[in-house]
Amino acid sequence: MEVDNGSELTLEYQPNGKGTSATLTVKLAGEVLAVEALNLAKPKARAEFTESLCKDRPGIEREAVESELLKLAADLASQGNGDDKPTDETEPDPLAAMPEAARMQARTMLESSELLKRILDDVGALGVAGERELAATLYLVGTSRLLGRPLAAIVQGPSSSGKSYLVEKVASLFPPEAVVLATQMTPQALFHMKPGSLRHRWVVAGERSRKENDDTAEATRALREMLSAGRLVKLMPMKVHGEIQTVTIDQEGPISYVESTTLAHIFDEDANRCIMLTTDEQKSQTRRIIDRLAAGYGGTSANAAACGIIEQHHALQRMLQGQSVVIPFAERLGELMTPERVEARRAFPQLASMIQASTLLHQLQRKVDSDGRLIAEPDDYQLARHLLVKPLGRLLGGRLSDPAARFLERLRGWSSSGETFTGRDAAREETASRRSVYGWLSELHDAGHVEQVDPARGSRAAVWRLAEGGAEGDCPILPSKEQVFGSGVHACTREATR
Predict the structure, then answer these.
(1) Other C-beta atoms lying within 10 Å of the C-beta of residue 209
(2) Which residues contact 196 (CB under 8 A, 6 or more apart)?
(3) Rounded to two decimals, what is the model's pTM?
(4) Do the Cβ atoms of 154 and 271 come closer than 8 Å?
(5) Residue 119, φ and ψ in degrees, nearest 5
(6) Rounded to whole angstroms, what are the CA distances from 128 to 317, 452, 475?
(7) Cis status of the peptide bond prior to 150, with omega within 30 of 0
């Protein structure tokens, strides 16, 4: 490979017996830079070697070195060396290795009629104040990893609104083998993970890049393909037996996914594949968070029980079986959903997957048909509808996010119809950050509630005014429980998420 100054960097290896261990020699313009023995199949070993090689050498690109190491690993594997692990070695059952008390508590919880409430109470006990509906949605997104078509979500909210903290706490309730933590991913990262390491995993990513351009769209293309197709297939050149050949990389999924962002606008290609969620920016929620923080600093926090809670949930998730789920009322739902917008083609599968995730979580309380499939019940639709009515309303148009809707109400209070204002004027009227205000204005503009009179030019801010006739739409595509099942269905979901 070529470095910035035009010199040639070469990586040569000598196999160390059987397996993917080798002695690596790195030369720059013919001069030896490093000689080190490492297992090329181990990501940690590759990362440490790359860091050592690139440190204080800005001309050498880390991604190029990592790509070359992966090619060498594939070359070793193609020669029949394979993995260092014996083929007859079996993985131990992590559930069987857990304390009996944790397993018994988890089973009791799975059999409880208040399962969802107990889950959300446990999230609260880990230090999360409020946000019960958001926590319930994320927990079901993680559980959906076991489905054939899992869910994906993006959590939007202002900086310091608790997005990352909530995702982190909910993800901590899932065992390590179920979660892939990826605070940052390169465009090729998913392709080069160990084969099978993504299958039915919950990929918990970090904060989304604030740069929304063509390069960012390309970087997330592999993620979109994995979410849509459930696998990745890529042809790329690799060195095999000393020759460059085109090799097929087949990375099997499917995955569930979550990331967070302060951006108000996400690429349509990404947003359409994800459930768009928002944090609560209201003063009442800030009060709950401050009270919770104060309790912790005052020594009255219940975090001493956190380890026991996490262990119990790890047992619970390990008990769940990845069974097929049938929705007997799916055709009725399809008949009642409006086909006016093409996005409904994505909304319906998201609704169905959320119903299936609820059924899967309650599998010890659900019946099984003659083919061994779990049967979804009205309670599963009630829960899915309760959690998705607002996000799917945004996807299909006509409904604002809750923060933007509250901002619009305040905006109408201090700006008359026809009166112009700038984003700076709006920011001065608000207690939220300027970035949040500008994001809400953009959302209101897309929904037709405000119009731009004059665009921003240089240091001059854009000029806005309230639009005539902008109306908050209801969500017409999610039928009520009465429409689907009649009027005799007991409503208990709202109480559980309060």
Answers:
(1) 15
(2) 252
(3) 0.73
(4) yes
(5) -60, -50
(6) 20, 39, 29
(7) no
Kindly list the distances between the CA atom of residue 10 and the CA atoms of 7, 59, 220, 433, 462, in Å, as whole numbers in the listed order. Answer: 10, 14, 30, 50, 53
Query: Comparing 175 with 229, which gets the higher pLDDT?
Result: 175
Distances (CA, A) of 179 to 14, 171, 173, 382: 35, 8, 10, 27
Mean pLDDT of 26-44: 75
Which range (74-78, 153-157, 198-202, 334-338) has the least confidence?
74-78
For the cut 90, the answer to whether the pLDDT of residue 134 exceeds it is yes
Would strands 374-375 and 325-326 be described as parallel, antiparallel, or unpaired?
parallel
Quote the CA–CA distance of 72 and 75 in Å, as a whole number: 5
* Residues 42-59 pLDDT 10s: 777 777 888 887 877 777
* Domain 100-319 sits in CATH 3.40.50.300: yes
Angle at 295 between CA 289 and CA 299, to 5 degrees: 150
Q: How far apart are CA 24 and CA 4, in angstroms?
A: 22
Both tokens of 130, joined, read 């409020």
Confidence of residue 154 (pLDDT cuts 50, 70, 90): very high
Q: Specify burial of residue 172 (Cβ count, 10 A radius: 0-12, 13-18, 19+).
A: middle
Query: Nearest-5° angle of CA 183, CA 188, CA 191?
Result: 100
Q: In the structure, what pLDDT confidence band is assigned to residue 80 with cuts at 50, 70 and 90?
A: very low
Three-state DSSP class for 21?
strand
Is residue 352 a contact partner of residue 327, using CB atoms and an 8 Å limit? yes
Burial (0-12, 13-18, 19+ Cβ within 10 Å), 455? exposed
Q: Residue 368: which residues within 8 A CB-CB, separation 6 or more?
A: 323, 374, 375
Specify the residue for token string 């112009």: 420
pLDDT, one tens digit per residue, over 108-122 is 999 999 999 999 999
Neighbouring CB atoms inside 10 A of 429's CB total 15
User: What average pLDDT does the structure give for the chain?
Assistant: 81
pLDDT in tens, 251-263: 888 999 999 888 7
Domain locations along the chain: 9-78, 100-319, 325-398, 402-466
CATH topology of domain 402-466: Arc Repressor Mutant, subunit A (1.10.10)
